[in-house]
Every structure is written in structure tokens, then in C-alpha cells.
Amino acid sequence: MDLLFCAQSVQRRRILRGIDALSPQKPCNYICRVMRISPFRYYCDVLFEAMKNEQPYDSIPNFSAADALRITGVGRNEFIDIMNKCRSKIMWKLSKSIAKELLPGLPADLAIEPWWGVRFVNFTLEEFKKLSEEETSAIDKISKEEVNSYVLFDPEVINGLYKRGMVYFDVPVYPDDRFRVLDSSFRRIMGSSNILKLGYNFQCDLHQLSQSYGELKCFQYYEMLLDIQKLFKGATGGLSGLSKKILGAGLNKTRRNSNWEERPLSQNQKEYAALDAVVLVHIFHHVKGQSQFGVTEGCKVEWKSHIVSQVNSSRSPLRF
Predict the structure, then answer these.
(1) Ranges for the FAM91 N-terminal domain (predicted)?
(2) 11-20, 64-73, 132-141, 256-265: least confidently modelled range
């Protein structure tokens, strides 16, 4: 039994690490319905991991923190308050589970759209017996109907089932759908003066993106953009050559020259795309306090002078 539990725990961690994959719809159905890991449970685990390791609130990625606040009701102030309560307890150093006990027991009130689909989890016979007549009727309707939009049900019944983790919501996405949230999210990042954006020949990429996706404004204006290529004008071999010069290892160009239009992308292509991005961070951290390649030893890289912005003074304000 212990071996089975360990194997299931390992499998659970592997699946959760893949939640942010490019096409998460299939594993999400398994995670929510079979494993019964609801968004509320998942974000409680995210918060607990940070608290258990005594990490600051800012260690949680921005979008994860925003989702955690929406689902659990725990934001920065609540996080700090819980940590202060934990540290005031004598047993905190011995038992980190104190933090989990202080986290909310039920999800926060959620603004549910009428067109969201309602799905039920694989609950036990004992749980089924405890359902009210109205809840049993709702579950029966969900199992039989092809269309299960939230608007078709009694909201109080569905909300009660959601709070207890008996149902979850499915947001239908169709091939011809277009989301304003994509433009809004990227505009928050690209237009933020608090986020340093690293790239290699970045402005050329932005130009191509703005030409390809003219309806999106997020690629046309930016702040705090640092093109690593500008710091090393004499370097040859592109980003791979620069990586080899600075970090001692280049990028595998055979994966770069593969067919990127074919879907789905291969695992090698995904790894290359990730490395292509993360190598910029390593180069930046390496040279930030080091002498610049090709100049007299001891001269610091004046990277701050290479930060550029392109702001549209007439643009409409971002609404969050």
C-alpha cells in the first residue's frame, strides 16, 4: 500500500509539472475529474509550499499569485498574516503543517460565466448518498445532457457543489475563438516599467510579430527592453556563439533548423525554445557584474544605457 501511495504521489507530481503545457485540456480533465485536484486544492498547495519553505510571497509567479487570490482569497496581505501567525507558534519549526491549517477550507466566491460548462468529479458512493435531492438531480442532468452550461442549472445548487469540490467548470474553446486577454496580458508585461525584458535581436522579432498579428497592440509598444545583442556587437555566431563564449556551451542548431510549422512540436523543439529563452537570463546575470567581452579587463558592462522603450503617448490605459 505504501509503495502504491508513493507511486501515485510521484505520478501526481509529474502530471502537475505538466499543467502549463501548450495543450493542457486532456490532462486537465484527468486531473480535475479522476485525481480530484481542483484549482482550489492546487493553489492551496502552491501557497503551502511557499510557506513551508518560508519563501516570500514574491517567489510565487505573478499570474499564479493572481489566480491563487481569485480562487482562494489569499493575496499578499493574507499570506504575510498567515506567516506571522505561523512564526508566533512554538511548534512552527517542528511542524510546517500549521500553515496548511491556517489556509482557507473553502474556495472564494467565483464569478462564474453563464456559458461555462459544468462537469462532475468521480465521487464515492458515500458522497453520492449525502447529496440532496436537488444536487442529485443536477448531477443526473450533467451526466445525460450534451450541453451543460452553467446558465441551465440552479446557481445555488451548482455553487454548493463547487464549494465542496464535487463539480468543476470547463471553459469551452473553439478554433475560431479570439481572446482579448492575450493582448491584455502581453501588454501588461511589455508595457511594465518594473519588468526587464531580455531578447536577442529583440526588436526585429517584435517587428515581425506586429506585422503578423496586426490586431494585437501588445507587440507595438514596450518599456524596459534590453537587447543582449547590443551589448556584444563584435560577437559572431548569433546567440549560440555568444552563449558558447560567455557560458562555455552553445545551442544545438540542428534543433533550431527543424520544421517549426509542424504540429505538435517535438519534445526537442520545446526544450530548444526553453533554452533559447533561459540562456539570455544566464548571460545577463553573468555579465551584469563582469567585464564586457572585447573591452579592456575591469571595464563594467554599461547594460542600463542599452535599455530602450517605445511608448505610444496616445494609447488607451490598461484596464485590469
Answers:
(1) 24-181
(2) 11-20
pTM of this structure: 0.52
Quick one: average pLDDT of 3-31? 49
Output the CA–CA distances (angstroms, integers) from residue 302 to 20, 192, 204, 308, in the order listed. 36, 22, 22, 13
Mean pLDDT of the 198-211 span: 82
Residue 256 located in a structural domain:
yes
Rounded to the nearest integer, the mean pLDDT of the chain is: 80
Q: Are the C-beta atoms of residues 88 and 122 closer than 8 Å to each other?
A: no
| Stretch 183-192: mean pLDDT | 82
Residue 117 lies in a domain: no
CATH code of 299's domain? 3.30.420.10
Confirm whether 30 is domain-assigned.
no
Q: Which domain holds residue 244?
A: 194-310
Domain count, the chain: 1
Residue 223 lies in a domain: yes
- The pLDDT of residue 307 is 86
pLDDT at 242: 87
Task: Calculate mean pLDDT across residues 295-319.
Answer: 61
